[in-house]
Amino acid sequence: MKNRLFQILGIVLFSLSGRAENRSVIQVLGETNAAPISTGVVFIGGRYMPPPYVVARKGNELQINGETVDVLFKWPPPEFPETPIVMFPPNVPRSITETSGKYDADVSQYTLDWLSHLQTIKSTNRVNEMISAYNKLPCVEYAYRINDITVGAVWKKTGRDICGLNVYPELMLGRSLDKDFYKSDNLIQKGNRSLHWLCHALKRGDYYFLPTAVDRHSRHTGLSAKAQFTVALPLIDAGATAEEISKAVETKTGAPFTVDFCRALLRHKESLTPEFRRRIFETEK
Hints:
By secondary structure, this protein is an alpha+beta fold. It has a domain at 225-281. It contains ten helices and twelve strands. It has a four-stranded antiparallel sheet. Helix 7 runs antiparallel to helix 8.
């Protein structure tokens, strides 16, 4: 059932496994490469990746400079049961707590049940209803509207969604919750939309702080983090602890780096090159 949720959400699991399967999916779905981008800032596991950034879709993976940042859907295609009919609003399972993760089985089932319910009753206001459903979860800080068909959430365990939940999957896929999702044309279009969205965000100067299996900090995204790095960099150079850096950034900017992210920065402080420092301290024209 969790795998089935990936079909609907089209959302990331940050993983570098499954390379043999990935070669197979590339043969089926091919790849798309964008032109190099010199704007934006990317950190992977606390390690600064200098531009230019080459964003590519390799089968079902979204990559920046050859490093996987999103796995867009599971491959090979799983078998799906029939779409359940859920007439009544699903209740929050008692097993879901503040420490539950977005991809835990009970959270996945709750999300899937709500999507099925909204389709069953033919809701015309799915965005607001899904926001309300997410806000009932103890593991969600808050949910929010991204656009007319997409809902995002800030999860206590992993932070803000990079890609939101499409509450009208049938509009994008033609049919929802069935094998049509895995038609090659659908998957290629979906993957390329994600690629173009990421390119657009980098072109406007967004910052991406992406975790890895080793550096498991929360994901951060934002239009700028210059103010935070203006505070953090001198403290990193002075040998401050992650806790000290996190507290100072929050005190002086009101927008903290988490302690885990500061620890990742300290582990990879050699990546904070003069080129990166110029980007942070240069005067805006």
